[in-house]
Task: structure prediction
Amino acid sequence: MSSAAPDERRPSPLKYLGIGAILIPFFVLFLFPFAIMISTSLKTNKEVYRQPPTLFPDEVMWSNYRDIWSEATLATFFRNSLIIGLGTAVLALVLAIPAAYALARFTFRLRQVYLFTLLVIQMFSPIIIILALFKVVSAYHLLDSLPTLIVINAAFGLSYAVWLLTGYFQSIPAEIEEAAMMDGTSRVHAIMAMTMPLSWPGIVAAAIFTFMGAWNEFLFALTFISDEEKIPITVGLFQFVGHFRVEWNYLMAASLITTAIVLALFLTVQKHLTRGLLGGGVK
Amino acid sequence: MAVSEATSERSLVVGAGAVTAPPVVRRGLRGAVQQELAEHWFAYALVLPSFLVLVVLIGYPVINTFVSAFSHVDPVGNIISVGTFGNFRKLADDPNLPHVLRQTVIYTVATVGITTVISFVLALVLNQQFPGRSLAKALLLLAWAAPLSVSVMLWRWIFHGQLGAFNYVLSELRIIDEYRVWLGEPRTAMAAAIYVEVWSSLPFVTITLLAGLQSVPRDIYDAAKMDGAHPLREFLDMTLPLMKPITFIATLLSVIYAFNSFTVIWIFTKGDPAYRTDIIVTYLYKLAFVNLDFGAASALAVVTFVLLIVFSVTYSRVYLGRRAR
Result:
């Protein structure tokens, strides 16, 4: 077993070889679609339709990324996604912050009922809910409206935001609010002045996660929006594919932007999340 | 922690006392409710808005769908009269439903099986120390954060019948003689959809299993090493049993996820040709929004829900129950 001991400290080259033999082929396959996305997005339309296909475009068309914006509808799709994402994040937080605070600080009778409700909601597939929701939304003439989509997305993002924030508020000791209240400030004021500033990494993380959820959302937008002016980018790209002759290079350029935005946000949250978890409360 | 809870509770009572009358002993349910509200009015006020949103936007639709399933429903979805099994009878006579169910089972089992095996291997590898480990984890997570519908469209381009990279790579490798329209035939379209579903589920399952591996205490392995345990024995006797609970949760969540997965199939084929690539959720969606049969769609939604519950209970019995007592 003497050979096993250095295995822990300084792995043998054989072990690295084994790891490489598994991970390298895996990641080639796993990331292959992204390589195709980048490659196609930089081709001329002619090269897209040429056989055999190339991985590295003969002529690199950075201008594709500029040209897609002249396609007026695409700019509209992005604007709609942005409105939906921001609206959802704001609404979800306005609802989730008070609820999470109450769950973290007070032991009221219906606390368990509320927590249980949050859990049960996760079990219902959106498709079950969409049937009845569609009836309500169309009966009140709320189809083709961005606010409708914002409210629905916020309701679906709510459970996660509340869970995340409850944990965060619990990590901040109640004593700091009480100390402020001793000095004669009101409870609400103490919360705003002490707890909220300390919780901002958690709040930002919850905001970004709900934004991402709404930005990536497809089914609700597909069902509740048909007006070309109101379509978000996920559904917009899908309609793009359905229409006439598809310009795959433009489609891929737009896909890349859509993906890059959400990835950039995700990387930010990851950092905040680890910082929040490692920092833990008041430091 | 306990101290802070107690003090915060007390201070709240003091705060409430300033607004309402001093607490009196009240009797009966109404009294209890009044007292609870008097003591905790602040907490209830904070929770109420979000609770109302959940009840109206999620609670009500779920109940409405369940009631619709047992009702006569008009084409717009309005309930005409409650109390019939007509919708379920219609489902029983639906010639498409048997093969849609079979397709759903194949889709779910294949996706979850393949995902779990690959994820387990990946998690074991990522649990080792090696340079580039955090890069590997980041790359996995990036694909997870990307919008699914956009990724699926990307895959649709890759599987394109004339221009797709998939055809090109396979013919270069001499696996196929001529280009095929992968998404045009039921069998290959299903296989392609399963492949993409696996691709999209891998990151979450791998990270979950990795978290499980990392929570296994190190000293157990050290003890085994001292006893001279063979690495394979160590894996079979210790890692696998310790990973059982987290594997259970990961597979259960994957089954629910794959079962409810709408996006891949919808963007690839919309269930065509002739419902041969439909799974329950896409078929249900078409029942409601193409055939405008909200009654049958609601009934199918109820069936789906019951199936998932029955599966979850049975699975946890079989998987966790045997060795429990």
Strands of chain B lie at 71-73, 79-82. Residues 104 and 279 of chain B are 5 Å apart (CA to CA). Chain B touches chain A through 88 residues (CB under 8 Å).
